[in-house]
Every structure is written in structure tokens, then in C-alpha cells.
Amino acid sequence: MIEIKNHKFPTDVYYDPATHFWVKVEGKIARIGIDDIEQGSRGGFVVVQFNDVGSEVRRGESLGSVEAEKHVGALKAPVSGRIVRVNDALLQNPRLANEDPYGQGWFVEMELTNFDAEKADLISGEANIRAWLLAEAKKYEERGWIAES
Amino acid sequence: MQTRWRYIADDGVSAHLGLATDEVLMRPYQEPQPAPGGTLRLYTYRSHCALVGRFQHLEAEINREACEALDVQIGRRMTGGGAIIMGRDQLGICLTTAVKHLPPNLNQRHLYAFLAQPIIDGLSKLGIDAAFRPKNDLEVNGRKIAGLGIYTDARGALLFHTSLLVDLDVDLMIRVLNIPREKISDKVLLRSVRQRMTTIRRELGTAISLDEVRDVLKQSFARYFQCTFQETPLTVEEEQAVQQLMEQKYQTPQWLFQFSPQQDLYGAAVRKTPAGLLRVYVALFGETIKSVMITGDFLEQLPFFTAVESALKWHPLERETIQYTITEISRRHPTNDVNPHLLAATVWEAVRRARMESHFTYRGTCYYPKKESQTITRQEAGG
Q1: Is A135 on the interface with B (CB under 8 A)?
Q2: Which helix (H) or strand (E) holds B19?
């Protein structure tokens, strides 16, 4: 686990630099969620909605929507695949994504369909993750994107 | 250098046509090759339409019987926020562009203030001193004059919505927005709503026309984005796309009556204080406070109350942080009449009562909860 500017980041996952979503791969299944710095930037999650289980999503397409402090936005899939499970607990309590982004606040699980090609666009490995996050944290701080406590 | 933006002005549109058109106007700004500039649409709905936010429970927010009786159309927006009434005296502002066209230092936290600025500038030209009130309102001296909403899609297009009150039929709003009838006669609560909202005509004291407001705002947006507007109606293809969206999305029961897994819950608490009665109404949405209204015999405390109400909107349901938030606001709005600890305790009691509801039963809007609790004592409130 890396800690940068009071935000925590596990190192056994992939990160999508475009969305700050994490991807934890086990076999052909990937669990997906949002990382700590991005959840803080978005503010409190109020409503989360996902595409139906069984639906196919390609990387960059919407796998659902979130309303956070009244900004409704699409959740862009960091990888391609078929949604096999959604986090019912998160649907009931979207703030889990803020309070426990790597644990109870995960979004969906997907059966991967193009991961070998797409993982090149993701960031993995402790050294790479640390270097990327240091630059990102600086950017978030300079631009005032980090949530006021 | 000035960019060229698209401009559309239309009036009297139906709920579904208005919303579907806004969504179609996002499409030119989607990846991979978003068009330059943006689109500004300044328009009105037919009198009247009731529009709920993206994830609201329509049945909870809208009195459908009243809508049928009054010929009010209903619709669901792509943007978030609460239910609104739209008609000939409420100017709809729709701005679409690509997220990548906006200044790079903006993210969700700053978008509202950035996009609201040309509206504030326009109101200033009219002689109204408006300000952005987080999280998504414009206010004039503590009274709401406009509500804002944003939606961004997966392909990088942005839709910014505003409902600007040129005028407002509060009585109609109260009937349509699911206000329990027995509370319409409650002058205290009616007055509370009127105290919290204002309109351009009320502020100016004149019957300024909607077209005049529209012209001023158009000029203000042009200055702000350093653009020139070219009036460009929908193409035939776009009109077809609007029709398709209406039929396949905005008119369908699946879209209109969709449910969130979360329940709306409502609670109220009343506290006797040496200075008079203090009433707090809360609406909860899952583990979040959806809205709060504070009323009572403290009219001079309205700025404090509205500041607390704004801060608690979408606030986590945590007793300590609610207490902290109210205490912090009380430092900016010192008051001898209302103890912030007592107010926090009353808010929490209203939350507790809301949570005791085990079934989804509508109890009114945040302005008019249907069921007023009994007066509680200081000990009961834990204060």
C-alpha cells in the first residue's frame, strides 16, 4: 500500500490513468472501483447505477452513472468485458465508494475480453504506480481538486 | 480570438422534446472528434412541465393527480438535483460542449462555479447581485433564484442545465411538487418557501420580459466564452434523433418511473427554545441528507438557517460531522437566539425519526413534510 498526501493506494491492482479507477484481476475476472484521490475529488457519492449484469462494455464506454454532489456523470469502463456482478451494497449505500474505495465500495466485476491488449494502457507495479501517483497528486493539489476536509 | 458557437432559442417546448433536444445537442461534442466551441440554448417549456432529477423517485416528488388536473407534463432530466417547475416564466439554459474545451484546471468541484459565472454576470447587468451558492444554486441575498445541474457522458460531452426564475407561481409549484394539501394553509411554511426563493421580476420590481432576460444572458455568455453566436436550428438528422430519443427514452415508463434502490425518507423535529419554536425537516436519500429546512420563530436568523441548509445538502449521515458543520457555520453567522449544538441535536432528531420509517411513504417535499412530529424535549433530543 502506498500513501501519498493522506490518500492510500494498493499496489496489487492496475490503475486507469484516464479515470483513476482501479482494476484487480483474478483469472478472467476483474473487480473495478475508484481510487482514493478521485473519490475525494468527486465528493460524496449520492446515487450509483450500473448497466445490467450480462451486458457487454468496451473500455471507455459507460458501465454506469454516478451522482456525486449533484453532478451526474458516466462511469467509464477501464477495461472491456461483460459485467458479471454489481456491488449491491454500494447501490444501497453509495458512500461506501468514499469511505472504503478498495473494499466495500467496489463497483462491478467483469469477465475480461481484451485484457491482454488493454493492460498496456493501465499502470501497474509499485514503482510505476508511485511515480504516476506522485505526479497526479501534485496536479490534483495544484488545481485544487483534492476535497477540502 | 473569438470562436463561433451555436445558438438556439425556442419556446413552449414539451417536457420530452425539451430534454431530448438537450441530449442531442451534446452529440457534436463527443469523442473522438468533438466539434469546436459549444452550443447555447435559451428556451422555455410549455406551461407547465414538472421535471425531476436524474435519480429521483418521480412518484415521491411529483403529485401526478395534480399534474393531470392542471395539464402539467412530467419528465426526467439527465442532470441531477431536485424537482422543478418549468414554464413560460422560467428560462431554461442548456449549454453543451466538450469537457476538453473547458479550462484544464476544472474538475467536478469547480465546474458549477465556472459555468454559473456568465449567468451571474448577466443578472448583474440587470441590476441583480447574484452569487453562486454551493453546491448548485444561484442566490440573491440568501434566496434561490436558479438551480444548476451538470451531466457528462462517457464520450467527453458536457451538458449544463439551469432553471432561471424570471417569475414563479409558488402556489402552482406547491400543488404540483407533491405538497400535502393540509399544509397549504400553513402560513408559516408557505412564508418559509417564499423567503427562500426569489425571481428576477421580484428583485427588479418590474415586469421585465423573458426575451429581455434572454438577450442579456446571450450577450453575457458571448463575453464570457469570447464567442460569437450563430443561430442554427436543428438539422433534419438531429430532429430525427430527437424524435427517436423521445420515443425510446424520455417518454417511456422505464425512464420516467425508474427506481433507485435507495428510499426517500422524511422526518421532522420541533424544539421549544426560550426564543421560540425551532422546526427542522429533513429528507434522506440512503445514507445521505438530501435536504434540510429550518423554520421557526427566528426570522432574523434566515441567513444562518439557509447557510446550514445549503451545507447539509448531500451531507453524510454522521452525527459528529453534522455537529461540526453547523458549528463552523455558526462562527460565520453568530447568533444568540439559536445554539448551534441545540440546532444540531434537533437536526439529528429529525434524522432519527426519518430513519424510523420502514417503508417508502411519501411525506411531502423538504419544504412541506406531511407529518410534523410532536414537540420534543431537550433530553429526548440529546442536546
Answers
A1: no
A2: helix B15-24
Number of other CB atoms surrounding residue B259 within 10 Å: 12
Pick the CATH number of A14-121 from 3.30.530.20, 2.40.110.10, 3.40.30.10, 2.40.50.100: 2.40.50.100
The identity of residue B318, as a single letter, is: E
Q: Residue B99 in contact with residue B111, Cβ under 8 Å?
A: no
A100 — contact with chain B (CB < 8 Å)? Answer: no
Find the range with the poorest average confidence among B109-113, B276-280, B372-376.
B372-376
Check whether B223 has a pLDDT greater than 70. yes
On whether both B245 and B349 belong to a single domain, the answer is: no
Q: Residue B261: which of A42, A75, A92 has the nearest Cβ?
A: A92
Contacts of A91 in chain B (CB under 8 A): 260-262
DSSP state of B35: P
Q: Which residues of A touch B53 (CB under 8 A)?
A: 67, 70
pLDDT of residue B262: 64
Give this complex's ipTM: 0.80
Residues 37-96 of A with CB under 8 A from B: 41-44, 46-47, 49, 60-62, 65, 67-76, 88, 91-95
Tens of pLDDT, residue by residue over A49-59, are: 999 999 999 99
User: Minimum mean pLDDT among B119-128, B195-204, B294-303, B320-329: which range?
Assistant: B294-303
Per 3-state DSSP, what percentage of chain B is helix, strand, and coil (rounded to 5)?
40, 25, 35
pLDDT below 70 — which residues of chain A? 70, 144, 146-149
Check residue B376 and give its pLDDT.
Answer: 31
d(CA B200, CA B204): 6
